[in-house]
Amino acid sequence: MAHVSAEVRRELLVDAAIRVMIRDGVGAATTRAIVGEANMPLGAFHYCFRSKQELLEQVIAAITNTHLDRALEDVTGDGSMEERLLRGVRAYWDHVVRLPEEHRLTYELTQYAARRPGLREVAQRQYATYLAAHTRVLEALADAEHITWSVPEPVLARYFTGLIDGITLLYLNEGDAVTAGASLDLAAQQIASYARSA
Amino acid sequence: MAHVSAEVRRELLVDAAIRVMIRDGVGAATTRAIVGEANMPLGAFHYCFRSKQELLEQVIAAITNTHLDRALEDVTGDGSMEERLLRGVRAYWDHVVRLPEEHRLTYELTQYAARRPGLREVAQRQYATYLAAHTRVLEALADAEHITWSVPEPVLARYFTGLIDGITLLYLNEGDAVTAGASLDLAAQQIASYARSA
DNA sequence: GTCTATAGGAAGATAGAC
DNA sequence: GTCTATCTTCCTATAGAC
């Protein structure tokens, strides 16, 4: 592993940390486990990161970004309001069913972050970002379909975000992907029913 | 602390563990912190519990029970379907706003449990129990009001449970109790709208 | 920068006197 | 049963040779 720049190593370590966390949980992602996963010696850790917390911040940033990049982009395109929402929700759900452990990790990370003074704001910002993303989706839909929402947008955005989050969490812990998918379809229909022609 | 039966000590330690977990998180609830909170010597721990896992199982059982005892019991009584649901949801929400850390602990505990082989089934059972509780609420309402639900009951129960869970989690991490409360009111109206006269 | 070796502390669990 | 002292293991972080 000679002659690999510290910057590249940082990325390799962040990726390795995410793999370990997905496989065994945040608690199992010790510095030893992470450098082991990346095939680096233990000492490499601390000239790439000042501390474990610094790594965690970068892990959270990486996870949040990949999620947002994919966040309900499928509501764009043709079709009625309900069709678009259904398409977006189902694309999200496919991802959850295919990679459940990746989604479990997002919950685990915010929880972990919420308990450490230095990371609490990071957790809060992460959730605020999800809320903002869903708000933007609602705004884009209203714009494209020339409608307004019959419920205040912040309330509807929170309803939407909480619904998706809650049904996902319930599925991760209890199972039954089919019923959960049906509940999400119901959610999309429900949101669509709040559209009023402007 | 002489002459206190091991059985009483077990209860004292479970209560102490819950206090520590609410205050500082599940990760901070070490055997030392727990016996310290209960004003007992370290050695007491292991003649009250075979292991830390045994304590955790009892903590989870205690938390789940206190939550279920209070679960939406307020939907009984007078009023229309929507009034009853609003009453139940608001009673729940009052509790969340008054004791947020207690609710945060339930999420933290299931997550912790979901990662340990010996406790995974406990986490799953906990969520299944919440789902069953909400199903019973829906059934009781349908019965009392002589209606049927226009959506399959398992789907509606999952929708309901996920919605409440998700909005709560979002509030705990992001804040804004007022908007969150409004979203829960919306949830109650929404569920009520699925009633069809039998 | 890169690695080996180790410091320094905290965790769960146990040994053994009383 | 009850408690003190201790064992073992694993953690983050650093020291110091190359």
Task: Please give a quick description of this structure.
The structure is a homodimer of 198-residue chains. Chain A has 198 residues and is mainly α.
Q: What does this protein look like?
A:
With 198 residues, the first copy, chain A, is mainly α. Chain A has 2 domains: 1-49, Arc Repressor Mutant, subunit A, CATH 1.10.10; 52-197, Orthogonal Bundle (Tetracycline Repressor, domain 2). Helices cover 74% and strands 3% of the residues of chain A. Chain A has 9 helices and 2 strands. Chain A has helices at 6-24, 31-37, 45-48, 52-70, 81-98, 100-114, 120-145, 153-174, 177-192; strands spanning 147-149, 195-197. In chain A, strands 1-2 form a two-stranded antiparallel sheet. The longest helix of chain A has 26 residues, at 120-145. The radius of gyration of chain A is 19 Å and the shape is elongated. The N and C termini of chain A lie far apart (62 Å). Chain B binds a DNA duplex (18 and 18 nucleotides) through helix 3.
